[in-house]
TrEMBL record:
Biased amino acid composition, Basic residues: 528-537
Species of origin: Rhinopomastus cyanomelas
Domain VWFA: start-end pairs: 17-193
Stored PANTHER family: VON WILLEBRAND FACTOR A DOMAIN-CONTAINING PROTEIN 3B
UniProt cross-references to Pfam families, sorted A to Z: DUF4537 (PF15057), VWA_3 (PF13768)
Listed Basic and acidic residues bias regions: 222-235
Spans annotated as Disordered: 222-246, 522-542
Designated name of the protein: VWA3B protein
Length: 674
């Protein structure tokens, strides 16, 4: 249905108020008759059931059929068809102007763009201009277009505007364009079908597992006598067996493994081979399978029971053998379940030390147990990245979380940044979990200790397994001398896992310290803010008293001269009388109080100061400078400080001739000097 008539080209028109943009450039000369035919089908099959519509043709210039959207009626439909029939080819392809006409109409709900090649304007410019308008779906139709770049542009245009892309090519001359052959509607339907098939396969697998579990627990088992026997064994376990051991859980993930198969000797694996009663014989001779089940099933089970009991030193009729018996029945009923038997035998009875470290870490590693530092911080993690804004031609970052989430995690490849909030995570509990995980890695100590001969064990003073991390050098030398009875890869994998765990603990501690420092910093900032809020406004402190001695900036030179406050003009300006008997209105921010109870802190190298200069008492003034050397004596008042003036000249001044200032005031002062 979607590939017939006008829907094969334009897809299914779902909006009520639409614009149809038709390319009439020179390249459409041989294609225009077919386009007219398809548009006629579009009018008859879809547009007549809409509310409003309009057509726009574009070549070097774009021309609309009507100024605005026209109502759907027989007269307008007939008039539009006559207009379409009269279309003639032009020259170039002014796609941008056609889009602007359609997007400028306030009633437009969707745009359908039909073209066969690249636009006159750069694609990036068109995409940027489209973003300036309100978001309207632009459905693009590539009509017999074998230009890959043009198809990519049309696909990107529809994607960014949440429209659909349709590719229509009668001849399909370009094989590289085959990826565009399916319309968006068909692609979505195919994806839905594929998803349904995957879900159906999963449900079949789950259903099969449920059947297996039913058989394992004795439910729905046609062999009631055998089921009753197994049940009675489970209800009356051997003496000394705890009640917890009556119930047994099975991992649901069923994998085929040959690990346990390698545990049996060749004679034991071939028990019953002579009379074709071994498990292998049952699998090989599938044709006579049903007959052999009834005749030989019990005999085969007796053989398996003897093998397992002898191999594992289990008492006869133990609860574990009863469980295997139920699985054995299931294996006879479903040939595919033979791998389950080997898996369960391995998971129940094989030592975990016989499993490779790579396989063991898949279920017991930090990643598998979700104990990495990012797993702990995941509830508060916020991805942080940039977004390209075409109209600005820049990548921009959001600063919303800068203050709320001050810390960030950078990936190993430095391509991903994630903002985190350690304060919202219980890192102490996380560290305890990781420490418990490290204890579970005693497997490394046991693995190496088991591989060492007694003479090597005697070299260590400890009775049991020694700690690998504490005796690493000695243990590795012993394993090297023995020719590595344990896989080197197994040892290194476990060692790396332990080191990773210790690193995560250290990172968690570092984050806690960072949080404490951040809290102290924010507390100090809030305290300072409260103190400032209690202080009088700027210009209302010392200036309320007349005759306050200050140094104030002169507009003539930009230097600071000694003077006295005559009166307050307002909250931001004061009238200052200088020693030279001149008066000037000076902003409060360009005055500094001197004399009286003024702080005189100890200066350090790099501090910014105003340094007094001038040969005569009446001509002294202050200029910005930087301290580059301080006296070594504790009593510095009588010693000289070396300062670098704003003009790169050095001077030696005593402490009373220097007034400490901020870096900002130093920068401003240098700017104002004439």
């Amino acid at each position: 249905w979607l590939q017939q008539g006008s829907r094969g080209l334009f897809g299914n028109v779902v909006e009520d108020d639409v614009y149809i943009l038709i390319d009439t450039s020179q390249s459409m000369k041989d294609k225009l008759p077919l386009v007219k035919e398809k548009i006629f089908q579009l009018i008859q099959e879809q547009l007549r059931y809409k509310r409003r519509f309009n057509f726009v043709k574009f070549s070097a210039q774009a021309v609309a059929w009507q100024e605005k959207l026209a109502e759907v009626n027989e007269e307008n439909l007939q008039d539009a068809w006559l207009w379409v029939k009269g279309l003639e080819v032009g020259s170039s392809t002014n796609t941008l102007q056609a889009l602007q006409i359609a997007l400028a109409d306030a009633g437009t709900q969707a745009v359908y763009l039909l073209t066969d090649g690249r636009p006159d304007q750069p694609p990036s410019k068109i995409l940027a201009q489209v973003q300036l308008h309100r978001k309207i779906p632009i459905h693009t139709v590539s009509f017999n277009c074998d230009d890959t770049e043009a198809n990519k542009f049309l696909c990107q245009l529809s994607t960014e505007t949440e429209g659909r892309f349709h590719y229509y090519d009668v001849y399909l001359t370009d094989r590289d364009a085959a990826e565009f052959i399916a319309s968006e509607d068909l692609r979505l339907l195919k994806r839905e079908i594929e998803q349904g098939e995957k879900d159906l396969a999963k449900m079949k697998s789950v259903h099969a597992e449920c059947l297996m579990m039913d058989y394992c627990t004795g439910e729905n088992d046609p062999d009631k006598n055998l089921s009753h026997s197994v049940k009675s064994r489970e209800e009356s376990p051997e003496e000394g067996t705890s009640s917890e051991r009556k119930s047994f859980s099975v991992k649901r993930s069923v994998k085929c493994t040959d690990t346990f198969k390698g545990k049996l000797t060749e004679q034991e694996a071939l028990v019953g081979a002579e009379d074709n009663t071994s498990p292998a014989a049952f699998v090989t001779n599938g044709a006579s399978f049903d007959a052999k089940v009834s005749a030989c099933g019990r005999k085969v089970w007796n053989a398996v029971e003897n093998i397992v009991a002898r191999f594992l030193e289990l008492p006869p009729h133990s609860y574990k053998l009863s469980y295997i018996h139920s699985m054995w029945q299931l294996q006879f009923k479903h040939l595919k379940c033979i791998s389950i038997l080997y898996y369960i035998l391995q998971s129940l009875f094989c030592s975990s030390l016989d499993i490779s470290s790579a396989l063991w870490l898949k279920t017991h590693g930090l990643v598998a147990r979700r104990l990495t530092i990012m797993d702990a911080l995941a509830p508060t993690a916020v991805p942080y990245g940039n977004k390209y804004i075409p109209i600005l031609d820049k990548h921009v970052f959001s600063k919303v979380f800068d203050e709320i989430l001050p810390l960030a995690h950078v990936s190993n490849d430095k391509k991903r940044i994630t903002r985190i909030n350690p304060q919202a995570v219980n890192l102490d509990a996380y560290k305890e979990k990781v420490e418990q995980a490290i204890k579970s890695y005693e497997r490394l100590n046991l693995l190496i200790w088991r591989a060492l001969p007694q003479e090597e064990k005697d070299k260590f003073k400890e009775d049991g397994p020694v700690q690998y991390m504490q005796h690493k050098k000695a243990l590795l030398e012993a394993l090297e001398n023995l020719g590595w009875p344990v896989s080197y890869e197994d040892v290194m994998l476990l060692e790396d896992e332990i080191r990773a765990a210790l690193l995560y603990i250290q990172q968690a501690s570092d984050l806690q310290e960072a949080v404490k420092k951040e809290n102290k910093k924010s507390l100090a900032s809030r305290t300072s803010h409260l103190k400032k809020s209690k202080k009088p406004q700027k210009g209302q402190g010392f200036l309320t008293h007349k005759s306050q001695k200050v140094i104030a900036r002169s507009d003539a030179t930009g230097f600071y001269y000694p003077g006295t406050v005559i009166k307050n003009i307002n909250s931001t300006c004061v009238l200052v009388g200088f020693i030279s008997e001149e008066t000037q209105i000076v902003p409060v921010k360009f005055t500094i109080p001197v004399g009286g109870a003024v702080p005189c802190p100890r200066l350090q190298v790099g501090d910014y100061v105003f340094a007094r200069t001038g040969e005569q008492t009446g001509n002294e003034y202050y200029v910005p400078a930087i301290v580059i050397a301080t006296p070594k004596s504790v009593d510095m008042h009588g010693k000289l400080h070396t300062v670098l003036m704003f003009n790169n000249m050095t001077e030696h001044c005593i402490r009373s001739e220097l007034i400490k200032i901020s870096q900002m005031k130093y920068d401003f002062s240098c700017c104002y000097i004439r």
